[in-house]
Structures are given as C-alpha cells and as structure tokens.
C-alpha cells in the first residue's frame, strides 16, 4: 500500500470522466461486489459481466444507465493481503465527482489491514466523503441449515441485535473495531442465490438503501428512478404486445381472431428473452410453458376456447375476449420476465415463482385494461 495516495501521473480515460457522481466500490475479491451492484442497479449478474469496462489498471467502471449515466460505479477488488495496490488512478476517477465510497467485506474476513490502511488515508485526505461498509455473506457464519434471523436483526447503526448468532455477531463486531475512528456506517446484508437455501434472497438490501439515503442523498436520488430495466421491458415490450393481442381478439372472428393473439404472445416472450440475452430466444416460450406445468396449459387452452366462443355474442363478447387476452398476455409477460431474469443470473426459476408472477401480471393487466384499455403506464 502506498504511503501517499495523491493522484499519480497515469491519465484517466476521458470518456469515463463526466458529471455523474462516482460510487467507488472497494473490497477484496469475493466479497460480493457484483451481487451488490446488481441489487442497486436492478440488473443481472451475467449482464453486468459484459457491461463492465476497464477504467484503470486496478478497477472497472459501470456507467448507470449506459445511455445517459446518472451514476458511475467504480469497482476495485485489489485490496488483498500482500498484493501491491496503487490507489492513485482509482482515486483520480473518484475525485472527478465524488459520490460515495461503498466498501464490501465478507463477514468472515479477518484480513482487514489493506482495507483499513486505505480507508484511513482516504478519510484523512477527504474527511467529507461518505463511506459505508457493507458486511456481506452473513450465512457463511450460520450453523448448518440456519435461516436469516427475522425480522432484520440489526439496528440503525448496523450493530447486531440479540437474534444474531454469536459467531456472526463476534465477527461483525471485530470488523467494526478494526475500522474504528473513521466515522463509518456499517450495514450487514446477504444477497444469496436460491440454491444457497435462504428463504430471503435480499436480506438487508432495504437497510443498505436507507443508509445510502442518509449518507449520500444525491446518490440515493439517482438510484431511485423509473428507468430501471424491468420498467423499460414492461413499457416497451409487454404493454405493446398485450395491446396487439387484445386488438386481434377484438375482431368478432372466432378461432381465426385468436391465432394472432397466440402468435403475439410468443413474439413477446422472444422479445423479452432477447432483452435479457438468455440463450436461444425461440426456446424460452417452450421452457416457460414447461415450468408453468400442465395445469397452466389446460387452463390456458380452456380460456382460449372460451374467448373464441364469447365472440359469438355481439359487441360485448369481442370486448370481453379482448380484455381477457390483454390480461393473459400481461401475465405471460410477467412470468417470462421472471424466468429470463433468473436465467440471466444463473439461477433456475421455480414453478411456484412463475405462477405467482403470472397471477401478478394478470391482475395488473386486468386493472390496466379496465382503467383505460391499456393506455395507463404499466
């Protein structure tokens, strides 16, 4: 570690310098930076791996969002014992528009000397810069099969409460002692995958957002936006295809009017798959139906035939079929989003999760069509 962290002579790439504040994420490799970044940006790990771009010899940059960045995330994972790290280039990027320093430490990590040394130097040089410490991978210090203590078992300062297992509480307190005197705020959290066995996959994520709001309000405001990827997918993919499906069913043509609606639903699922860049998009529809199960297929088929029968009734029959098709398409779209999001993150969606997503999308679609025939914001 250098004794002096003043900016060195190495130039910062001009295209990475802008007005968007920088969130400098520091920590050892394997401390959960990518999971945390995905949580904050409503992103997906597999997509983030492609989106990160070299910024300095020791860090990668993620402009968020890429088209018109409101924030820039600088990821430095070089803080390892016995591994030389020159902070000058990364610091120069941070100094272009400082927003927040977000440190990630696995709860079981005891080799804190590199992190502590750097934070003390940063705090001495820039005492006004807010610093948060995310204490991650809590479950690694649980007894086998134990779940996260519920409700969230840490106070507003991140200190362990009485429900926190003793071994974990001791480890978290030891990290606080090692980094004492810097005015840091600690946030224990655990972002896990379903196969890791935890019922709550984003334990402590809300506490982190609250801590960011207190420490760096400008950063929190830029994280709170309606421009997250799923909002775009709902508005730019699901809603247009649902309107197209409803319009095709509005024609009083039994059977023939229902075929385009089915084709529109298939096309919507393929478009969602392309947005998430998961596999061959032509297979996602078949995968979706397979995971949803035979009961869903039977209900879908019966509903489709009933819609065609309704069209025999003048005026109201076609309108009812259109409303039904709109809601069903929204439900399929929500389930497809859930399926593709999980696949993009290297996970497998459960039938229960997909059915719940379908029910949610169906309810929202029915409400939208009833309120304004799909003209409302999804």
Write a brief caption for the model.
By secondary structure, the chain is of the alpha/beta class.
What spatial order of strands do you see in the largest sheet?
2-3-4-1-5-6-7
Average pLDDT, all residues: 80
User: CATH homologous superfamily name of the largest domain?
Assistant: P-loop containing nucleotide triphosphate hydrolases
* Order of SSEs: EHHEEEHEHEHEEEHHHHHHHH
Work out the count of structural domains.
2
Helical proportion, percent range: 40-55%
Question: Which of globular, elongated, flat, extended, rod-shaped describes the shape?
Answer: elongated
Largest sheet: 7 strands, mixed
Within the CATH hierarchy, at the fold level, what is the topology of the largest domain?
Rossmann fold
Strand content: 5-15%
What structural class do helix, strand and pairing data support? alpha/beta
Q: What's the total count of β strands?
A: 9
User: What distance lies between the first and last C-alpha atoms, to the nearest angstrom?
Assistant: 51 Å
List unreliable stretches of 5+ residues. Answer: 1-17, 371-378
Number of helices: 13
- CATH top level class name of the largest domain: Alpha Beta
User: From the alpha-carbon coordinates, what is the Rg to the nearest angstrom?
Assistant: 25 Å
Account of the protein in words:
The chain is of the alpha/beta class and 378 residues long. Helices cover 49% and strands 12% of the residues. The strands form two sheets. Strands 2-3-4-1-5-6-7 form a seven-stranded mixed sheet. Strands 8-9 form a two-stranded antiparallel ribbon. Helix 6 packs across helix 7 and helix 9 (258-276) packs parallel to helix 12 (316-344). The longest helix is centred in the last third of the chain and has 29 residues, at 316-344. It is elongated and about 70 Å long. It starts with 21 loop residues before the first strand and ends in a 6-residue tail after the last helix. Mean pLDDT is 80; it is low at 1-17 and 371-378.
